[in-house]
Write a structure and sequence with these properties.
The structure holds two protein chains of two kinds.
Chain A: E1 8-17, E2 20-30, E3 35-39, H1 46-53, E4 61-66, E5 69-70, H2 78-82, E6 85-88, H3 100-112, H4 116-129, H5 145-157, E7 163-167, H6 175-190, E8 194-198, H7 202-208, E9 211-216, E10 219-224, H8 226-231, H9 236-245
Parallel strand pairs in A: 3-8, 3-9, 6-7, 7-8
Antiparallel strand pairs in A: 1-2, 1-4, 4-5, 9-10
Chain B: H1 2-14, H2 19-57, H3 61-76, H4 79-90, H5 98-124, H6 127-136, H7 140-170, H8 182-193, H9 197-227
Helix pairs in contact in B: 2-3, 2-5, 2-8, 3-5, 4-5, 5-7, 6-7, 7-9, 8-9
The chains are: A alpha/beta, B mainly alpha.
């Protein structure tokens, strides 16, 4: 056991949907500041794995230790811990009845007792960073897909999370909007944010990831640093997968 | 022709201050409608939350069953029968004023319909909204209050408005338990003057004007809420 406890430690995680084993014993560790990419064919369980991490999906068995606390313990207040785990969805899921600014300030104000001025100041700072300060008063329906996803990212950041979970953040975007979202994510990685990213953007994974996991049939079949992972895959399934997507 | 019309108005409404029947009746109709509406909204709201929570999470089994029985009974029997049962069977010895008994009966009835309207609104909101709320750290109730319900209510506003209109007109059966509502007021005048046309048409026009006014207000409100977004 290392001196430093990893931020997230997953042990033998299993998830069964009526008769289907979506996760079949997944174990891994994610350290602070680490950027982990999860790739694999569709139906491999990678999204389920990510959604289990903050228990949007309830695992059937196993353990997830976040900051030393087992999230699957019945007595754990999951809402508390979710505040420290930001999540970005494929379909953005911005709140359509609120302005961009309100989308970002409602959670810190209601959950962390941050004052309105404070929350708005922080939100504006983040909007500035992603180049959307002039859209603060707009409603989500007035934004492009890339803008929506950038807002979704900074909305999660407003809670000052310790880890950011990305569930195929660019899969629902027009090709010309993918770049702006990846750029924001790349900057986040540079600032040492702990990130778990499920994606099909292999080029981006090569560039940003510290470690890449390959999942198929609910298991991690291979993992390693991107240079090794992409140049020298060992698992047959991974070789077949990479030959198709690259 | 005009003179005879004026005479009939004079005879039906002015003589013997018979217009008071309509004014008092209107007052009772409005009291019953407003209180029944409030009661219906509260009941409907609670049932909708229970039912959609059960649909989403599978919890609250017993409460859900209770709500389902309630919906089945209320929606499966005529409102007039429910009113009569409330008055002559359930609340007979409570000493409550008749108008109160009536708005309880109408409220219980309306609640069943409001419940299904609100539930349909909640279920129409994409599950991603729910997940986004939960992922930020909101608990189930907070997610409902801050994120789901505001969107759901806006979506079902036209249907709720419709339910209000139905309720307003439904109170016209209150005469069955001898409440002097607007309809009964017109009918009393008819029985005094033996002129059916004037009082009944007048009553119809008053209902129509109320419904039109309400519809107009509702469409203004709807437009306001939409403008907020697009």
């Amino acid at each position: 056991m290392s001196v430093k406890e990893p931020l997230i430690r997953v042990e033998d995680l299993k998830k069964e949907f009526t008769g289907v084993h979506a996760l079949n014993g997944v174990s891994t560790k994610i350290c602070r500041g680490e950027v982990v990419f999860v790739v694999g064919p569709s139906g491999s369980g990678k999204s389920t794995f990510l959604r289990c991490l903050n228990r949007l999906e309830d695992p059937t068995s196993g353990h997830i230790y976040f900051d030393g606390v087992d999230l699957l313990d019945k007595k754990v207040n999951i809402n508390r811990h979710r505040q420290k785990m930001g999540m970005v969805f494929q379909h953005f899921n911005l709140f359509p009845h609120m302005t961009v600014l309100r989308n970002m300030t409602i959670a810190p104000m209601k959950l962390q007792g941050v004052s309105r001025e404070e929350a708005e100041k922080e939100a504006m700072k983040l909007l500035e960073r992603v180049g959307l300060a002039d859209r603060a008063g707009a409603y989500p329906s007035q934004l492009s897909g890339g803008q929506k996803q950038r807002v979704a990212i900074v909305r999660a950041l407003c809670m000052k999370p310790e880890v950011m979970l990305f569930d195929e953040p660019t899969s629902a975007l027009d090709p010309e909007m993918v770049g702006e979202v990846l750029q924001v994510m790349g900057e986040l990685a540079k600032e040492n944010m702990t990130m778990v990213v499920v994606t099909h953007e292999m080029g981006f994974a090569k560039e940003v990831a510290h470690r890449v996991l390959f999942m198929a049939e609910g298991q991690i079949l291979e993992e390693g640093p991107p240079a090794e992972f992409f140049a020298n895959p060992k698992n047959e399934r991974l070789k077949a997968f990479l030959s198709k997507v690259i | 022709m005009i003179q005879s019309l004026m005479d009939r108005i004079q005879f039906n409404f002015i003589d013997g201050d018979r217009w008071v029947y309509l004014a008092d009746g209107l007052k009772n109709t409005l009291i019953m409608t407003v209180f029944a509406l409030l009661l219906g909204l509260v009941i409907g709201f609670l049932i909708a939350i229970v039912r959609s929570t059960h649909d989403k999470t599978g919890s609250l089994r017993v409460l859900n069953l209770f709500c389902k029985v309630y919906l089945t009974v209320i929606r499966g029997t005529p409102v007039l029968v429910q009113l009569l049962i409330c008055y002559f069977v359930i609340l007979v010895n409570t000493g409550l004023p008749k108008v109160a008994i009536a708005f309880i009966a109408f409220g219980l009835n309306s609640g069943a319909y409001v419940a299904e309207i609100i539930r349909s609104g909640i279920m129409s909101i994409d599950n991603g909204q729910f997940e986004a709320g939960r992922s930020l750290g909101f608990n189930y109730v907070q997610t409902m209050i801050f994120i789901i319900l505001p969107q759901a209510l806006k979506n079902v506003l036209p249907a709720l408005g419709n339910e209000f209109i139905v309720l307003l007109k439904e109170t016209s059966v209150a005469g069955y338990i001898a409440i002097a509502d607007l309809t009964k007021g017109g009918d009393i005048i008819r029985s005094r003057t033996f002129d059916a046309f004037m009082p009944l048409i007048t009553v119809a026009i008053i209902y129509l004007v109320m419904v039109l006014t309400f519809s107009k207000l509702l469409s203004i409100l709807e437009r306001r809420l939409r403008n907020n977004e697009r």
